[in-house]
Structures are given as structure tokens and as C-alpha cells.
Amino acid sequence: MGLEQETYRESLRVPVSWWIIAVATVITLFVIVAVPAGTLAGAIVGGLSAVMLLALFLRYGGARVEVDARKFRAGRAEIDRSYLGDVEALTGDAARTAFGRECDPKAYLVLRSYLPGAVRVQITDPGDPAPYWLIATRHPDRLAAALSGHSVGRS
Fold this sequence. Notes:
The chain has about 160 residues and is an alpha+beta fold.
């Protein structure tokens, strides 16, 4: 297998709609405070809320999913590919159920509610307490193909 077939990278950034809602929220907070308390107070509240939302979105959306010839990285965790078992791409109801009522509390999760798909990867390392990793993704088929060593299409 060539390196090209085993490489996958994805950044789990928050969608544009969240940024639009954040801007509307900051403007609303500014107006709510500025009308009774003055422009300076509104600017302070609006500025603080903008900074907090920016930090939250960048941190939450900063998670990365990467597969290379040796490692699988998801969020803050990484594992050697030799410890990966069965890989299953999940979409729609299957993904929602996997993150919901079928989820093992010991599983390692990278959940992003705005992503439609997921990949479940069984972990074969006897020293790892997580039975599987469940990773949210925009491209479950491509990620599953990269993890199982098959060809990965590009979008």
C-alpha cells in the first residue's frame, strides 16, 4: 500500500451557521445592554461575549482526525494502527444510535453534533480500556477506507 492510500486528514470545524448565530448573539447582547446602560457597557458585554464564543468555537472546532501509515489520531488521542480492529462507517440513524443508546460508556468519543456521519473502530489493544473509538466525521466512507487500508477518494 502506498502512503497516498493510507493518508486522511479532516478538521472538525463548526459550521458557518454557528458563526452567523454567534454574530447575531453578540449584536443582541450589545443592544440589550447598550440601550439602558450606555454604549460603553454594551461594547464591553458584546466584546466579552465575542471573545468567549470565538474561543469556544475554535477549541470545539479545532479537533482533527488524521490517519497515516503508522497512527490514527482523533481529537487529543492517538493510537498505533496495529491496534485497530474492525472499522464501520455509520450514517444517518446508525450514527445517531451509535452515539446514543448503543454507546458503550468506556468508548472513546469525538462527538460533533453538526456532523452527519461517524466511524466506529474496534480497539484490539488489551491494555486500552476503550473497546472502540467512535469518531464523528463529514466523510465516514473515506475515513473507514483510510483506516482499513483501501483507496481513499478525494472530494
